[in-house]
Design brief:
heterodimer; A: 2 domains; two-stranded antiparallel sheet; B: 2 strands
Chain lengths: ~280, ~400
């Protein structure tokens, strides 16, 4: 190999490596700049977004939304749970493939042993708990393992403590699904916009919320867009005045949810894992 | 140097053609999967990683296993490994290539794969896995190719490559450690949540990698004039034997912790893998991996026993058989049980079993064939260079 060719190859190689690395380095730099500038003009900084980081202790400032689910009320009102699920799944264009393998669900019901595995001492205590169904959904953890696992920040915690999904960034690696201890996440194994035997998987498309494409993960959003507009989540709305579900700011001591949590004994799903779920259950 | 791969006998070309055929099948299956979505596989909401990710995990081990050939030669100047270090490096290249293909095959949105680079996320273990895997590929390509090319030209390899060789040694450990961290840092997956996972991965890797290499070396001994030598063979037997025993020791530790503590979450997956697990509600017993896992244990121990016998008897066929037994045993243990088992039961203690589809198996075979194709071409070059040198020397 003569020296000029070698020199050329060396330069070409270095350029190629730099070319691959540069966009990400640039990206990181730019992001820092944006953060710095928004902190500078005084209104862009979001202390709440980082309040819970480090993993221990609830977000001390800003809002942190949570939910209390009264399983007894659901037990006493048969059909209410189904109404909640329908309200959620129809609004968010959650497809129904008619089989368990491809299943997508944001909100659903399971018996006590499935909702609270490891707490089986309750199992033998009373028939009522045993017979009850429990609404399960994304816990919007304060210390979410899915956010930690995601390699692209496609799932992230917003300033209000809600765990969000960016359907357009998700690469479909399903690391978050392995990481979630609650089975809250679903994957689009096939095209949800399709149909089988003339029956579309999404019965009636709601134009207010985008349908997903195949190959991305989805889950309960805590109705973040509704909450931003001052509304309550659809499932909570569907429970009417029953108070079977209470939604609100856990950081506000005067909120209804804080009052309920102060007055009633509640449990959480797998609190020992340190994920600090935002969903509480009255049993 | 590449031209060496273009000269071969009929057997060589038949083998290459055979591999290309399987790769073709894999490509067709991938097109089917790409058009339909990952629903074309046996994966489900509960078992979200299947045979792709489990093959990936196993092959990271095979890649790291190359270390056992490189380390004695470069760090301890163990001269008898001089002829096989290059085989270890080239095996690592093929294995990492397979790993990357399996990851791509597993992505729901493969066109967005670069998001991992465009939106780097240092809190995700996958981010580090990307770095260590591509780094390891780079190191082995550089070290392997430069050293062989120097040999081809009849000179000693240049000094600038030495740091890369030394870096590649701890780097091999890092790839399998980070791969273990993908699993063992997840709360709520009791089977994976164990500090011994990375050591266990490494032990099985240091056995499985050299096993594969040994089998290939013994095949080449019959089909070409290339012989790695009795001394190197015997040394490899020691390495494989100890690493395989360590793997079973670690497995034993896991079993003790689970069944002595009797913490249900720790026992569930082991129950499922080795005995069958009954569903809470229905009482139905799920056990589709039990025959595989039990044969893995039997094959593993039989392989360890036989490999030492083969050295005593100086029997190459027995050595090949025992290496194959250990390799298959660890392939089942890690290439099936470890990943699939972790999802049973799911986070709600429900049981869903996983069975791969034909499309999935076709893609898997295609990726393996690609790996073997790379190994074939690279080994062909390596042994051609080595044999030629020895002729002229």
């Amino acid at each position: 190999m003569d020296s000029s060719r070698r020199k050329f190859l060396k330069i070409a190689g270095i350029t190629a490596v730099a070319g691959i690395g540069a966009p990400s380095a640039l990206n990181m730099l730019m992001k820092q700049e944006v953060q710095a500038s928004s902190a500078g003009d005084g209104h862009g900084a979001q202390p709440a977004a980082h309040g819970g980081e480090g993993g221990h202790g609830a977000a001390p400032v800003g809002k942190r939304y949570g939910m209390v689910i009264d399983a007894v009320k659901f037990h006493e009102n048969p059909g209410m749970a189904e109404k909640c699920i329908e309200a959620c799944h129809s609004y968010y264009n959650v497809p129904d493939f008619g089989n368990k393998k491809d299943e997508i669900k944001w909100l659903w019901q399971v018996p006590f042993t499935n909702a609270f595995p490891g707490d089986e001492s309750h199992y033998k205590k009373d028939d009522r708990t045993h017979a009850m169904q429990f609404m399960v959904l994304c816990n919007h953890c304060d210390n979410p393992p899915c956010v930690r696992a995601c390699p692209t920040k496609a799932t992230f915690k917003n300033a209000d403590g809600m765990v969000m999904m960016d359907f357009h960034r998700c690469i479909g690696c399903r690391f978050c699904m392995a990481a979630c201890p609650y089975g809250a996440r679903s994957f689009n194994w096939r095209d949800p916009r399709g149909s089988k035997d003339g029956v579309p998987f999404i019965k009636k498309v709601n134009p207010e919320f985008p349908t997903r494409m195949r190959g991305v993960v989805e889950k309960c959003s805590f109705c973040d867009l509704r909450v931003k507009r001052g509304l309550i989540p659809l499932c909570v709305e569907a429970t009417g005045d029953s108070k079977a579900m209470v939604f609100g700011d856990l950081n506000d001591p005067n909120s209804e949810i804080s009052q309920v949590l102060k007055a009633r004994f509640t449990i959480q799903r797998k609190p020992s894992l340190g994920t600090m779920p935002s969903v509480f259950y009255i049993i | 140097m590449l031209e060496k791969s273009l000269k071969g006998n009929l057997g060589y070309w038949a083998w290459v053609l055979f591999l290309l055929g399987i790769i073709g099948v894999g490509v067709i299956c991938y097109i089917v999967q790409y058009n339909y979505g990952l629903g074309a596989t046996g994966m489900s909401r509960d078992v979200t990683w299947g045979i792709y990710i489990s093959q990936f995990t196993f092959l990271v081990g095979v890649a790291a296993g190359g270390l056992m050939l490189v380390l004695p030669y470069y760090l301890h100047h163990y001269k008898d490994f001089a002829r096989i270090t290059i085989l270890g490096e080239f095996m690592a290249i093929a294995s990492v290539a397979m790993c990357m293909l399996f990851i791509m095959a597993d992505l729901g949105q493969p066109m967005r794969a670069l998001n991992v680079v465009l939106h780097p996320t240092p809190n995700s273990m996958l981010f580090y896995d990307m770095i260590v895997l591509s780094g390891y590929l780079f190191l082995n390509v550089v070290c392997g190719w430069v050293v062989l090319h120097s040999e081809y030209k009849g000179i000693k390899y240049p000094n600038w490559v030495k740091p890369f060789i030394y870096i590649s040694i701890p780097w091999a450990v890092s790839i399998h450690t980070v791969t273990a961290f993908l699993y063992c840092g997840l709360p709520g997956r009791h089977f994976w949540l164990t500090a011994i996972l990375a050591p266990r991965f490494l032990a099985s890797a240091f056995a499985a990698g050299p096993c594969l290499l040994m089998v290939i070396a013994l095949i080449m001994k019959r089909t070409t004039k290339f012989d790695i030598g009795r001394v190197a063979q015997d040394k490899l037997v020691t390495i494989i034997g100890y690493a395989a025993l360590l793997n079973f020791f670690f497995l034993g530790c896991e079993i003790f912790v689970a069944y002595y503590s009797t913490i249900p979450g720790h026992m569930h997956t082991l129950d499922y893998l080795y005995f069958g697990l009954a569903d809470h509600a229905t009482g139905q017993v799920y056990n589709n991996l039990v025959p595989f896992m039990l044969s893995s244990v039997v094959m593993g121990f039989a392989g360890i026993g036989l490999i030492f016998v083969s050295r005593y008897l100086k029997s190459d066929p027995l050595l090949a058989l025992s290496c194959l037994l250990i390799f298959v045993s660890f392939w089942i243990d890690k290439g099936l049980g470890l990943v699939l088992g972790g999802f049973v039961p799911n986070g709600l203690e429900q049981i869903t079993e996983y069975v791969p589809t034909f499309v999935e198996l076709g893609i898997t075979a295609g990726v393996w064939a690609t790996g073997f194709f790379i190994i074939t071409v690279l080994y062909k070059i390596a042994i051609s260079v080595k044999l030629e040198n020895e002729k002229t020397a």
